[in-house]
Write a structure and sequence with these properties.
The protein folds into 2 domains: 2-171, Rossmann fold (3-Layer(aba) Sandwich), CATH 3.40.50; 174-362, Up-down Bundle (Dehydroquinate synthase-like, alpha domain), CATH 1.20.1090. The chain is built from 14 helices and 11 strands. It has helices at 25-33, 44-49, 51-57, 77-89, 104-116, 130-136, 174-191, 193-208, 211-231, 247-256, 265-282, 288-300, 316-323, 353-362, and strands spanning 2-6, 13-17, 38-43, 63-68, 97-102, 122-127, 141-146, 149-156, 161-164, 336-339, 345-348. The N and C termini lie far apart (42 Å). Helix content is 46%, strand content 16%. Strand 1 (2-6) and strand 2 form a beta hairpin. The longest helix has 21 residues, at 211-231. Helix 10 crosses helix 11 (265-282). With 365 residues, it is of the alpha/beta class.
Length: 365
Amino acid sequence: MSCVRVGLGEQSYDIVIEPGAIRNAAEYLGSYIRGRRLVIVTERNVADYVLPMLSEGLKDVALETIVLDPGEGTKSWHQLERLCDGLLNAGIERSDHIVALGGGVIGDLTGFAAAVIKRGCHFIQIPTSLLAQVDSSVGGKTAINCRAGKNLIGAFHQPVLVLIDPETLDTLPPREMRAGYAEVVKYGLIGDFAFFEWCEANAASLIAGDRTSQMKAIETSVRAKAAIVEADERETLDRRALLNLGHTFGHALEAETGFSDRLLHGEAVAAGMALAFRYSARLGYCTKQDAERVSAHLRAVGLPEGPAAAGVEAKGSTLVGHMLHDKKMTGGTLPFILVRGIGQAYVDKSVSLADVAEFLDADAL
């Protein structure tokens, strides 16, 4: 077992990483039950494959389950209303703990519902996808999408526990594993060149299911994110913003595809990171060799490294139009996460969106 502490004063919590943890959930969740029942929020696919494991691990606990539809479309006003009504009908109290069992969509939606129900309830993250395990379950960002863009309605609401069981990854299709891997290699690209080199050597075995590689990737990723969250919980000091590498480009690609399964979030982030490196090279901030090395690695693991590879044929001006709805816009300026090399990301607040549009039109990938 590995345990990573997120130190946030009274809001501090543990991230427990342990194969088989779900089947022994009572050991980890016992102190949060206090003789009451648990309300579990999940989605249909997870309910079929993972919920039975959790039920086995909590066989002496009264469970109430709310099952939602899978997919990015669930992060919506309609589904938030449905979830809140379900939680209230279940008689949820502020001292209860809502369990988010699923990938990033379920974690984001459930966390936001927990933040607003009765002005704030406790919640526990049990992430079942690689993307959620290494990124979205940690840090307290919760949100839904709306017509204007992705994650524009939300709140910071920290979980009380994150319980990661790598065995749940065995239920994922290869496409989901690859999409989650994008958020793993991101930590190397942001600030850990040695970890990027490890990813180059071990990505294939990680995605194929090698447990040792998965444990290394998960622990390294959550330790990196925990340190960043501790230093800049609400993204006011430019430190946490580095986690958005690839996301400004990526969210625009997601918007163009209607936030649908045409393009998974991790796939969009992969394309966005490659674009961030190529744009940095265009500006002379990093070498073309570094940009190509990143693109080559993403191609090697089956991830898109640009709009065309992601199935997006929109003009640069169209994609920039989506960026104008980005939640990071401040005073009419959109900060970009650019790079000076692999493992050397930084926040750039001087980027011209007109130049970004021109770059996107000229980019051939």
